[in-house]
TrEMBL record:
<dbReference type="GO" id="GO:0016887">
    <property type="term" value="F:ATP hydrolysis activity"/>
</dbReference>
<dbReference type="InterPro" id="IPR003439">
    <property type="entry name" value="ABC_transporter-like_ATP-bd"/>
</dbReference>
<dbReference type="GO" id="GO:0017004">
    <property type="term" value="P:cytochrome complex assembly"/>
</dbReference>
<dbReference type="Pfam" id="PF00005">
    <property type="entry name" value="ABC_tran"/>
</dbReference>
<keyword id="KW-0067">ATP-binding</keyword>
<dbReference type="GO" id="GO:0022857">
    <property type="term" value="F:transmembrane transporter activity"/>
</dbReference>
<dbReference type="GO" id="GO:0005524">
    <property type="term" value="F:ATP binding"/>
</dbReference>
<keyword id="KW-0813">Transport</keyword>
<dbReference type="InterPro" id="IPR005895">
    <property type="entry name" value="ABC_transptr_haem_export_CcmA"/>
</dbReference>
<feature type="domain" description="ABC transporter">
    <location>
        <begin position="8"/>
        <end position="225"/>
    </location>
</feature>
<keyword id="KW-0201">Cytochrome c-type biogenesis</keyword>
<dbReference type="InterPro" id="IPR003593">
    <property type="entry name" value="AAA+_ATPase"/>
</dbReference>
<dbReference type="InterPro" id="IPR027417">
    <property type="entry name" value="P-loop_NTPase"/>
</dbReference>
<protein>
    <submittedName>
        <fullName>Heme ABC transporter ATP-binding protein CcmA</fullName>
    </submittedName>
</protein>
<keyword id="KW-1278">Translocase</keyword>
<keyword id="KW-0547">Nucleotide-binding</keyword>
<keyword id="KW-0472">Membrane</keyword>
Length: 225
């Protein structure tokens, strides 16, 4: 169970790429058990925003607070709260599924032994693939291995960039229950996705990104006022 009082707030968020303003004055707030869905056309800046929240780029700027305390995306304590799974999995083609997951979990400052990783691979439908090099997986299998980190790491905030990509019906069903379970434990999620799974309307905050967006705060509290 994560802290029921958790709150994640962003304000004055803006992003410029070269000479082009992607978005500005964007604001959001989510609480424990809620998911933020970042929406927008191709090229609107969704990935740029996600990566900014994770301290992975400086192209976007803005103010962030975690539980009411101002944080910088590069703060170690703040970064330790986040599990980011982006378009690229970060896996090495010549390492096995177990070796890759072990490495990725360690890079995030955590540890998972082989038995635990095998159990996670089993849960994502990859029993028997433990020692297969990642470079010899299908696209959907590759995505399933990347998403197995959701079972291995205990972070309150998941930042997921198009997590449904390449998943089949069973994969989507697994992700749906995994997301619902995380939110039920007071976890939070910031994600981009063309469809929403595992989040009911009461727990979903939508953040549309459009150039010059000044549409006010994206939050459940404000929306209901
Ligand atoms: N490394 C980069 N250097 C310069 N411009 C970039 C770079 N990466 C992305 N861009 C540009 O920034 C804009 C926003 O890209 P971003 O990937 O954030 O959009 P997105 O909303 O996630 O798009 P999509 O829905 O297609 O994934 C695009 O116009 C893109 O061309």
């Amino acid at each position: 169970m994560f802290d029921a009082a958790s709150k994640f707030h962003g304000s004055q968020l803006h992003c410029q790429r070269d000479d082009r303003l992607l978005f500005e004055q964007v604001e959001f707030e989510i609480h424990a058990g809620q998911a933020l869905l970042i929406e927008g056309a191709n090229g609107a800046g969704k990935t740029s925003l996600l990566r900014f929240l994770c301290g992975l780029n400086q192209v976007a700027e803005g103010e962030l607070t975690w539980c009411g305390k101002s944080v910088s995306p590069s703060d170690r304590d703040y970064a330790s709260k986040i599990l980011y799974i982006g378009h690229k999995s970060g896996m090495k083609a010549d390492l096995s599924c177990v070796e890759n997951l072990s490495m990725l979990v360690r890079l995030d400052g955590e540890v998972a032994d082989r038995e635990i990783i095998e159990q996670a691979l089993d849960q994502v439908g990859l029993y028997g693939f433990e020692d297969r090099p990642a470079g010899r997986l299908s696209a959907g299998q590759h995505r399933r291995v990347a998403l197995a980190r959701l079972l291995l790491q205990k972070k309150p905030l998941w930042v997921l960039d198009e997590p449904l990509t390449a998943l089949d019906v069973q994969g989507i069903a697994w992700l749906e229950s995994t997301i619902a379970n995380h939110l039920a434990k007071n976890g939070m999620i910031v994600m981009t996705s063309h469809s929403v799974v595992g989040v009911n309307d009461n727990n979903l905050v939508r953040l549309p990104l459009k150039t010059g967006a000044t549409a006010g705060i994206a939050s459940k509290t404000e929306a209901s006022q």
